[in-house]
Amino acid sequence: MSTLCRLCAHVKQFSRPICASKDVCRTLLSGAYRCHDAWMNRLQSPILSKVAFNEFILDVYNKFEKGKGNILDLDILANKIENVHDKEVEFMDRILQQFRETPDGSQVSRSIIHGIVRGYIDSNLTDSLLPMIKDKITYGLHLDFLSANILMDHFIKKEMYHEASQVAYDMMLQEDFSNQVTYLLSLYSTTKLLYHPIEQESPNQEAEEGEEEEEEWEAVKVIDYPFYDDHFSIQSERFLHGKTLYMLGKKLGGVDGRSLQLVGLGMYDKFPQALKLLQDWMSVSDGTIVVQDVVTRFDELLQKALTRDSEEPEKDFGLLRIEDEIHKLKLTQTEKEHCIKDWQGIKERLQSENKISSDDLETNISDYVNSEISQYEQSDITELKSLIESWETRRQNWLDQQMKDFIKQQKMDEIQEKIIELEEKEELLSYYTYENEIKLAGLRAPIPHKEPKKKKVLDEDEIEERKLADQKKRKIKKK
Q: Could you list the residue ranges forming a coiled coil in this record (predicted)?
């Protein structure tokens, strides 16, 4: 079982709010950010106002099962999500999977994603939403910054920093922290998770459990070479967390930014890269470089880092798995010893030159995010209101086009029926016009020659059987 799977098993148990009072929990974003009034007003549109979710989802499900569903059906459904039951969650899951197999499913539109995110939040279904967001191939839910911000803020309000960080990881994999609110929320949630982690197994326990797992063999026609790109292929949540902190720290800069980069690279097992960065920082900076807490954390990560045997034999091609490719990226024991030696020298120099800050990184990041985030809200609010209007216009355009296509198809069907009817009438009229010629042609047509049936030649056994049968019949008649 991978690290990520084991961590997910602990989410419900260890993702409860840390605060004891609801009054302490707060969102970083103002109530205006969600544009609640504009979002609810869209329900008054002629299209959405006539739809009841609990009935419509069955219709859409049946349409997609028959291969007749389209993007308009899913868009209306996503924007009417409310009072969802367990069975309807299964229907929604199946509908999204089937939509991905349609021509329109290559890229799920922003209005559908936004509707699903907000609908699942309002229905307390975020535990079902996160796995869907992670599985891009099956569901195709690529969060934009507005839906990501609303979802992260929802988790932060409940102090569910692990879940909020999952959204930050998703934005990291998209390599898009261009939106300042997304960046600040990601920075806040991943830093909080660093200081308030969920319970997880140690690397040694993970390795031991991995050895006990039974292998399952499966016959395949082609053996694919396992490819690990160190980005989309990352399976370890610790690596995802570390790489996200590293990217966020690069954008932040300063002592706090450098501290996040250092601890991020340590969690990501990129120790040589981290030591190289430290040396570069020390050569260009006269002030403090990193905070003390990060120095301690990096030291622990380096000491506990797992290594590989440099002389271990190469596995056969058919036995290679992606875990083997990940294993190759680990330090050898010799490389680890060199890193520890270099780290000790750098650490002593940091201490002797007073380049280690005693600041609290968690407090610094919290204060920074709280002081900065409000100034970037208004531009997002304006954009979201504009998007809600444009989505409604596009939805109406889709419906109008669908009606035009329906009317066009009806007319084409009517024309086709008329053509068939005229052809039948023409054929009937033509018969009476050419009746004599048709009869004459029938008389002139050659009579097909029938070959005489060949008599079956009986062998001696069959002749003997028939004689015996005739004798029996004669005896019966005499009696």
A: 381-428
Token pair in block for residue 289: 């470089």
- Give CA–CA dist 62/161, Å, rounded: 38
Tokens 């024309």 locate to 415
H-helix or E-strand spanning residue 274? helix 271-284
* Listed residue (95, 270, 126, 249) closest to 187, CA to CA: 249
Q: Are 362 and 195 in contact (CB under 8 A)?
A: yes
pLDDT tens, residue by residue, 15-57: 434 443 333 445 689 999 999 999 999 888 888 988 888 889 9
Output the CA–CA distances (angstroms, integers) from residue 473 to 24, 465, 470, 476, in the order listed. Answer: 109, 13, 5, 5
Q: In this predicted structure, what is the pLDDT of residue 454?
A: 65
Q: Angle of helix 292-304 relative to helix 333-352, nearest 10 degrees? A: 160
Sole residue written with tokens 């009517």: 414
If we measure between CA atoms, which residue out of 164, 83, 151 comes closest to residue 117? 151
Q: Tell which wins on pLDDT, 104 or 260.
A: 260
3-state secondary structure of 332: strand
- The pTM score is 0.78
Average pLDDT over all residues of the chain = 85
- What is the arithmetic mean of pLDDT over 62-80? 91
Burial 327-365 (b: 16+ CB within 10 A, else e): eeeebeeebbeebbebbeebeeebeeeebbbebebbebb
